[in-house]
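Closing statement on the pyridoxal-5'-phosphate sub-project.
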Amino acid sequence: MTHPAPLPWLPYGRQMIDDDDIAAVTAALRADFLTTGPLVEAFEAAFAEAVGARHAVACANGTAALHLAMLALEVQAGEVVIAPSITFLATANCARYVGAEVVFADVDPDSGLMTPDTLAEALTRVGARRLRAVLPVHLRGDAADLPGLAALAGATGAVLVEDAPHALGTTMTFGNLAERVGDGRHSAMATFSFHPVKTIATGEGGMVTTNDAGLAKRLRVMRSHGMIRPAGADPWWYEMAEPGFNYRLPDILCALGLSQLAKLPRFTARRRALAKAYETELAPLAPLVHLAARPPWSDPVLHLMSVLIDFEAAGVTRRQVVEGLRERGVGSQVHYIPVHRQPYYRARYGELDLPGAERWYSRCLSLPLYPGMADEDVARVIKALGAVLG
Ligand SMILES: *Cc1c(COP(=O)(O)O)cnc(C)c1O
């Protein structure tokens, strides 16, 4: 059986849990270790294998993964991190957790992604400060231009940290090379989240992948209070060079993560089939509605079904569309309100002019997409959208 039971309406995203996921969790509950046990390493090893990275470090959630990445890089107060304005709050907030300043990059208005051009513009605003990391977001699941961004970041001595919760399973082709999001070919680290709407779910959960053994070690130390057990020391001994956090992911949730990860091929196929159905069904609604632009190198496993709507031409507001869809049993969401507009960041950095982010925000809407959707649900969504847009 699949859980939860279908709803009479369609949310924008939802987990899919089978009876064998539940069996895996109950087995973990009967085992010796509820946390810091063998399922943590087992989940990490399976995840590293799935994305093609040398190391994977499990943690409490995707926000903790970003914070750990900043700590592993030893980003210091007053240094700079660049994040796109179209993302979830956490991408920017992680810089503030370590006292670093955020420079918001604009995005391409049609893909919502940070590009080498928008990064180059953001670099002009770093000034004399030291830039440590650039955080591309693979919005909705489409891959950002990692080689282009890495070249620009690298020239300044900074590294890429991919904020990749949307893109588990996404592949990309740069030149002749097939790559996977999270394989770390262009970035120092990539972060993932297992929140229920993401591609695999553990309730709360996160992961950082890297090919750098030193970074992996620091991620593990900072995940657990900054505690180090020196080789050959007394069995009770531990030392702390720097206060870390308790960002561990318990074995109970790693059991669920392992079980869900085994279904990634099935979830991938389902998400791809639904995305294809959307593409076909949406065509008649052009030019009022079109899909977010797909970069040519990206072969995504979409997390979000992002469409761009010309609300002005349709003669309706986004609020009317969201409410009209809801009345017809269709959930939707906006991904995202530009982060630079948040009161906290406005107060800190003043008003910024990021026209690509504004243009993306003014048109974007995420329609239902999750593996538990039936084929006919796509037609139902499009019919509702067509009715609401008149
Ligand atoms: C979900 C998400 C996060 C945060 O993950 P949590 O597990 O909810 O903390 C960060 N960045 C992006 C782009 C996300 O989608």
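Residues 264-282 form the longest helix (19 residues). With this model delivered, the sub-project is considered complete and its resources will be redirected to Aim 3.
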